[in-house]
Amino acid sequence: MTDRLGGHLVGRVGAVLRALSTRNEAGAATSDLARATDLPRPTVHRLLTALAEEGFVDRDQRTGRWFLGPELYLLGEAASIRYDVTHHARASVHRLAAATGESAFFSARRGDETVCLLREDGDFPIRSFVLYEGVRFPLGVVSAGLVILSFLDDAEIDTYLDQADLETRWGPAHAPAEIRARIAQTRLHGYAVNPGLVVEGSWGMAAAVFDRAGRPEWALTLTGIEPRFRPERQRELGSLLLREAHGLSRTLSTRKDASPR
Question: Which domains does the chain have, with CATH numbers?
Answer without folding.
Answer: 2-75 (1.10.10.10), 84-253 (3.30.450.40)
